[in-house]
Design goal:
five-stranded antiparallel beta sheet; 5 strands
Length: 124
């Protein structure tokens, strides 16, 4: 697997508070980081507020351990009149190593909204 080009939209270290009683990082924690990263991509594209309306195809490829650096990469795949689809990959790196491993991926759908929470055109 080839790491995405460019800088991650989020880089964070997995901490003990993000684990279950067995010490494994919760998948929900990882999903929330991906949602935040995808939201950043959507917000930059639509130049305003947007909300998550769907997430498709999340597959966990490898675990994340406490202390791992998690990098989230996002790419806009397409837009509709009010919606955007963002592909997201999360990669982990042991902080004492250079090698990164893809841990999960998914596609997030966002809708651009106005100040009243109603859908608005993506272009403004």
């Amino acid at each position: 697997m080839t790491k995405p080009q460019g800088d991650p939209v989020i880089r964070i270290v997995a901490m003990p508070a993000d684990t279950n009683p067995h010490g494994d990082i919760f998948g929900g924690w990882l999903m929330s980081q991906m949602d935040i990263g995808a939201g950043t991509v959507a917000m930059q594209h639509c130049r305003g507020r947007s909300v998550t309306v769907a997430m498709d195809g999340m597959v966990f490829h490898a675990p994340v351990a406490v202390g791992d650096e998690v990098s989230v990469y996002g790419e806009l795949l397409g837009t509709g009149r009010t919606s955007m689809i963002v592909a997201v990959e999360a990669w982990r790196r042991r902080r004492d190593q250079d090698h990164a491993v893809k841990v999960t991926e998914a596609k997030f759908t966002f809708v651009a909204i106005d100040d009243n929470g109603r859908p608005r055109p993506v272009d403004g």
